[in-house]
Amino acid sequence: MKLKLTIAKKLGLGFGVLTIAVLLNTILTYNTLENSRKTSDEVIKIYSPSVSKLADLYSLVSDSKMLIKTWVYIDQMSNDTPGKIKLRKIHRKDFPELRQQLNILSEKWTLEQREKLKIIYRTVNDTLFEEHKDIMSQLTSFEDYEDTMVQFELNTRVDPGSQIMLLTEKVLENISFLKKQNSEKVGEAMRNMELSFNDFQNLVFIMGLVLVIGAIITALFTTNSLVRPINYVKEIIFNMSKGILPEEKITEGDDEIGEMSHALNLLVYGLKDTSKFSLEIGNGDFETKFKPLSEKDTLGNSLLIARENLKKAKKDDENRKKEDSQRNWTTQGLAKFSDILRHNNDSIKKLSDNLISNLVKYLGANQGGIFIMNEENKEDKFIELMSCYAYERHRYVQKRIDIGIGLIGRCVKENETIYMTDIPNDYINIISGLGESPPTSLLLIPLNVNEETFGVMEFASFSEFPPYQIDFLEKVGENIASTISSVKINLQTSKLLRESQKQSERLSQQEEEVRQNMEEMQATQEETSRKEVKTSGILKAIDNVIIKAELSIEAKFISINEEYTKATKYRIKDLKNKKIFEFLPKNELKNFQNIWNNVLNGKSYSNVIEKRTRIGGLIYLFVNFSPIEDKNTGEIIKVLFLANNLTKYKEISKI
Q1: Residue 294 phi, psi (nearest 5)
Q2: How does 59-77 read in b/e, with b if 16+ C-beta sit within 10 Å?
Q3: Residue 295 gets which letter from DSSP?
Q4: DSSP letter string over 370-414?
Q5: What does each C-alpha distance from 637 to 407, 558, 640 come to in angstroms?
Q6: Confidence (pLDDT) at 527
Q7: DSSP letter string over 43-64?
Q8: Which residue, among 551, 563, 561, 647, has the nearest Cα to 595 in the 3D structure?
Q9: Distance CA 175, CA 170 (A)
């Protein structure tokens, strides 16, 4: 994938490099200064104060050594001499304060240094000062100094080789050691700071050199990528201002200047097209295609207006001829399809095939289909594709659509025509020898009569359907719906007639009565074909003759019609989702289980049975159990139960 660099990106790239270099320089400078600051803080806040305080501690211990000697040898006249006051102050105030200050500073020392400082504290506080205090307590008055034994004992305790003097020297030695270590820390830190500043000086020089080189590269890059293309475009625009159009295509880049070049190319092409269009109009060619440069293209729009004015007179005459042709086309089409409907009304499949092939051809469409409402199961009504025609041949496709689902389901539910030119890519494709392509327009016409919908016609085309064709299809749709209604009634009546004839053959005693019923239904059929308005009542009358129920493979009731409840006196809620075994006597369960197993193995069962109603009455039924298979898998999915109520015939035969 080619990277497109706009002017903003180019400038951003150049200055971004400089910014990164400056930022890197800033970070390195900050880190160097921060390290120096930390080192300086350690020197100022820890090591230098530590050296100073250790020097103070050294002086304090050294002074205490001198002052205890003075207490013994010199200050004999009074207890309030400056030397004695100072020694007491060292014990009570100076040493504790200095100890507290050193404790704070020693938190940053090494563990070894802190341990040595603790040893110094213990030696001074617990041993050395306790010796001082013992001597001070024995020389509190002039008489104590006159006591030769006391004086002798105390003199030996402050002699150069005494314990006090040795401890003092040991403490001073330890203090000097700690002081020396902290002084070395100060020296080391100063050397590190000096090295750091030397490195920083080199870094500043190198980064300055990098920034200068980066600035030079950025300037050269900007000149090559911006200034030169701008001068090129400027020269072309200057020539166009004189009416000189470039012969060759202007070079287009990937940035905003490239977009300007692209716009100039469009302008040049547009001006050339405008010039060509003007010559064609002058030669009397009003069908030449021309598109203005934009909605506000003054010259182009003026030329279009001029062309339209010239075409208007010619089009008025053509429109009159076109309207006459459309009316003739509609009249001939209605006559043609009325004839087809009159001669193909014995089979919905055959009628659908004939209709859709002729309609697709007559309309000049590319593909069409007829979808018919399937109402065999009143509790599971759906729409099924009855016939499909595309590219001069029938297509055989099985398709089930639920009411209200998709465009076809919505067309049935809303009972309104649907016309679309913006079709989803995955909705439908027109199949030809060259492959599959989405259509330009899609038209769905509901097949309805007397506010009842019997199906939908769907047409797809690579061209749009004009309004007169839509009006024509809506009129034809009413005729088709009326014919389908009649065909359905005829087929249903024939089906019921065949079923009744089969029952009459098995029930010889009621043959005459059944034949009369068939004759009545035949008469009803003939009357229905003449009076379609009464279709609904006749269907209800036929439905009242047949007892029907659907059972799952577990023998549970799925659906029950009203005739079943009338005959058995059971309510629908008493039967729904319950097994038929629950309503049989125990002595019949085993026999019925065998019958049921045979049905589930694909065998139908028919017989006359006696059955008790919910209230205890006895009825006679001619029953039929038929397995229903799945069209795709061949597996049995449910069982259809049909029955005729023969009770009144039995009663009549007994009389």
Answers
A1: -165, 180
A2: ebbeebbebbbbbbeebee
A3: T
A4: EEEEE-SSTTS-EEEEEEEEETTEEE----EEETTSHHHHHHHHH
A5: 29, 12, 10
A6: 66
A7: IIIIIHHHHHHHHHHHHHHHHH
A8: 551
A9: 9
**Three-class secondary structure of residue 612 per DSSP:** strand
pTM of the shown model: 0.34
Can you tell me the distance from the alpha carbon of 496 to that of 518, in angstroms, rounded to the nearest whole number? 9
Q: How many CB atoms lie within 10 A of CB 440?
A: 17
Pairing of strands 452-461, 367-374: antiparallel
Question: In 3-state terms, what secondary structure has residue 99?
Answer: helix
What confidence score (pLDDT) does residue 394 get?
Answer: 54
At residue 473's C-alpha, the angle toward residues 472 and 477, to 5°, is: 120
β-bridge partners, 372:
384, 455
Q: Mention every residue, 6+ apart, whose C-beta is less than 8 A from residue 408.
A: 371, 383, 401, 444, 456, 458
Cβ-proximal residues to 397 (8 Å cutoff; 6+ apart), any chain = 385, 388
Q: Pairing relation of β-strands 435-437 and 441-449? A: unpaired
Q: What is the pLDDT of residue 10?
A: 61
DSSP 554: T
DSSP structure class, residue 260? H
Look at the chain and count its residues.
655
Nearest Cα residue to 120 out of 177, 158, 183, 64? 177
The answer to whether residues 639 and 628 touch, using CB atoms and an 8 Å cutoff, is yes
Using CA atoms, how far residue 500 sits from 16, 316, 375, 516, in Å, is: 93, 65, 21, 11
Of 461, 485, 456, nearest in space to 473 by CA: 456
Query: HEC string of 406-443?
Result: HHHHHHHHHCCCEEECCCCCCCCCEEECCEEECCCEEE
Sign of the four-CA dihedral 485, 486, 490, 491? negative
CA 238 to chain centre: 52
Region at 602 (left for phi over 0; alpha for psi -120 to 50; beta for the rest): left
Beta pairing class for 546-552 and 636-645:
antiparallel
Q: Can you say how many angstroms the Cα of residue 364 is from the centroid of all Cα atoms in its chain? A: 42
β-bridge partners, 552:
638
Pairwise CA distance, residues 191 & 543, whole Å: 113
Closest Cα to residue 458, out of 514, 492, 525, 407? Answer: 407
Q: Give, for 333, the enclosing helix (H) or strand (E).
A: helix 298-343
Q: Which residue has the higher pLDDT, 469 or 48?
A: 469
548 sits in which H/E element:
strand 546-552
Question: In terms of Cα–Cα distance, which of 65, 109, 110 is closest to 83?
Answer: 65
438-464 per-position pLDDT tens digit: 888 999 999 988 878 889 999 988 889
Task: Give the whole-angstrom CA distance, residue 525 versus residue 538.
Answer: 9
Identify residue 23 by its one-letter amino acid code: L
Q: Which residues contact 203 (CB under 8 A, 6 or more apart)?
A: 25, 28, 29, 32
Q: Quote the radius of gyration of the chain (alpha carbons, Å).
A: 57
DSSP 532: G
Instruction: Encode pLDDT of 359-403 as tens digits.
Output: 999 988 888 989 988 887 877 888 888 888 875 455 445 577 888
**Cα gap 439→106, rounded to integer Å:** 89
> In sequence order, what are the residues at sequence separation of 6 or more whose Cβ sits closer than 8 angstroms to the Cβ of residue 495?
none
Q: Tokens at residue 494, please?
A: 């024939």
Q: d(Cα 265, Cα 269) in Å, to the nearest integer?
A: 6
